[in-house]
Amino acid sequence: LWPLPPKGGTTNGRKPGGKPFVVPALAGPKDPFRAILRIAAAASPSVAPHALLRYKQEEIRTESMLMNTPSSIRGELTPDPNVCNFILDRPLIEEGWSVVFDSDMEAMESPLIERLFEIDGLMRVRVTGAEISMTKEPSFSWQELAGQIVPVLREVLAGEHPPISAAALDAVKNLPPEEIAPCVEDLLNTHINPALASHGGYARLVKVEDRDVFVEMGGGCQGCAASKATLRFGIEAAIRQVAPQVREVVDVTDHASGTNPYFS
Fold it and tell me: Which among 92, 84, 225 is positioned nearest to 153, based on CA atoms?
């Protein structure tokens, strides 16, 4: 088991700590980047192989019959089969913030979260701008869940109340920015780098400016075609779990100088 690092204070009713990660068996030396960085899905016991960089995207589009609903809702599958991102055509919360919910008990009167957790099979919801990242239980399929999720999104977004309450967002905004660096450092040192080191790579925190996190990747990750997916679906998503007050995660790696540079 791979527990989330403890955080100071509480976020949306969560106590320090979190649901356990489940660490996959790492692949052998002949397959160096397989099954190492689906660390983003903390609630998921299934971690997809790193080889799934050409992950399949499925779009779920629905034309709105209601004036207040988005014109389209796009469902994007990720390398982790238990995580799907639903992208709207307008943000649900203020840009630059993320709010994570692990149950309806943390909803803080957010209508969208209360309704989504009425759906059997959903384990976690993260809202970032116009993106809603959802984690499901392995026994459920996105095909069956999407048929329930999309109508809920349309109904709630057509309502009179904000989908995410001001209290839920304020709980994140009130988190001290000075806690970002130690949380990220602990995440990298304790969880991310041990997995990357087994395959010749690493990631390090360069700096934190305001609420932006600057990360450099090295070793086998420098210049690797997989690094973009590693950053977005692995490192960035994990950072947003332990430090939801982060605005941007920026890759400052000189990939052109890597062993197998893909930008050169």
Answer: 92
Query: Which residue is associated with the tokens 């977005």?
Result: 232
**pTM for this one?**
0.64
CA separation for the pair 250, 179 (Å, rounded)? 18
Which residue in 26, 22, 15, 24 sits closest to 42, CA to CA? 22
DSSP strand E in the chain: where? Answer: 2-3, 20-21, 74-77, 83-87, 98-101, 122-128, 131-136, 201-209, 212-219, 248-251
For 229-238, the pLDDT digits (tens) are: 777 778 888 8
Q: What's the distance, CA 66 to chain centroid?
A: 29
What residues contact residue 129 under an 8 Å CB cut-off, 6+ apart? 91, 92, 93, 95, 96
Other C-beta atoms within 10 Å of 141: how many? Answer: 11
Q: Which two tokens stand for residue 82?
A: 């238990």
* Chain CA centroid to CA 2, Å: 16
Res. 39 pLDDT band, cuts 50 70 90: very low
And the tokens for 187?
């995440």
> Cβ distance 172 to 12 under 8 Å?
yes
Q: What is the pLDDT of residue 70?
A: 57
* Long-range pairs, 51-60, Cβ under 8 A, ≥24: 52/79, 53/79, 53/225, 53/226, 53/229, 55/79, 55/229, 58/142, 60/86, 60/146, 60/150
The per-residue pLDDT for range 116-159, each reduced to its tens digit, is 999 999 999 999 999 999 999 999 999 899 999 999 999 999 88
**pLDDT, mean of residues 251-264:** 65
Q: Is 56 helix (H, G, I), strand (E, B) or coil?
A: coil
